[in-house]
Amino acid sequence: MTTSESTQQPRGQEHERVYLHPVPVRIWHWVNALGFLLLILTGFQIRYVDLFSLMSFETAVHLHNWVGFAVIANWFLWFFYYISSDKITNYHADLNASNFFKRYFDQAQYYSFGIFMGEKRPHNVNPHDKFNPMQKLTYQFVMFITAPITFFTGLMMWDVARFQGLINMVGGIRVVNTIHVLMFILFVFFIFLHAYMGMLGLKPSSHYKEMFTGWEEPHE
Ligand code: HEM
User: Structural domain of residue 155, as residue ranges?
Assistant: First the structure.
């Protein structure tokens, strides 16, 4: 498959269409999104058992465990796809920190101001560098730090006896539980913000369509 093709735009302008999200990334993403929503729902039920009863405590625990394992396995699909593909450049750290933070600031300015004034987006997307600096930092943090911490702390609580040594090293089960809940709070914030930022394309549906078809939608 080619990674770009020319299409005719309604206004008659030539627009280079770019193939941004390969199949494994799209499968991983939507399974992951559904998984996280279920984990948050069942997590709420487990934590606030007296507050609402969407399902029994036992069902919530079973579902939380199974979906948790599916989401961990799915993370490896994302990881192995990227490390075996030349698209890993999308997640590479930017070695020129001052240039990166200048571009980060430009992007923040665009999201808070420029976008409403019809300015051109500061980051030019291509299959090997598809994330703007704000997306890049956020996704690196979510995929390499918060998700693995959530998985490890979840696994430790799933089988306390098996992971007793590790739990003691971290400071006990209460510490593990607190870290897991903090990650859960972070993910709730992340999903709201992420779903909103996903609407900041030319049309609110643009980035969503891209994440389903793989192909970049027309932009300014
Ligand atoms: C209701 C839930 C979700 C919605 C509606 C949603 C929506 C989107 C959209 C529209 C994109 C493409 C635009 C972009 O790259 O920013 C995207 C990409 C992405 N999302 Fe989500 N998302 C959801 C849940 C999640 C969750 C739970 C995570 C991680 C734990 C996540 C991580 C990512 C990552 C890492 C990308 C970039 C993927 C890549 O190209 O490598 N998303 N999401």
Answer: 22-213
At 170-210, the pLDDT tens digits run: 999 999 999 999 999 999 999 999 999 999 999 999 999 99
pTM here is 0.91
Alpha-carbon distance of 217 to 10, in angstroms, equals 13
Q: Whose CA is nearest to atom 26 of ligand 1?
A: 33
Percent share of the chain, pLDDT over 90: 88
Pocket test for ligand 1, best of 211, 215, 216, 217 (most atoms within 8 A of CB): 211
CA angle 78, 161, 179 (to 5 degrees): 55
Residue 106 lies in a domain: yes
CA of 26 to the centre of ligand 1 (A): 9
Q: What is the CATH number of the domain that holds 62?
A: 1.20.950.20
C-alpha of residue 70 to centroid of ligand 1, in Å: 17
218 lies in a domain? no
Distances (CA, A) of 115 to 20, 136, 192: 22, 19, 20
pLDDT tens per residue, range 11-24: 434 567 899 999 99
Element (H, E) at 38: helix 23-47
- The alpha carbon of 173 and the centre of ligand 1 are apart by a number of angstroms equal to 31
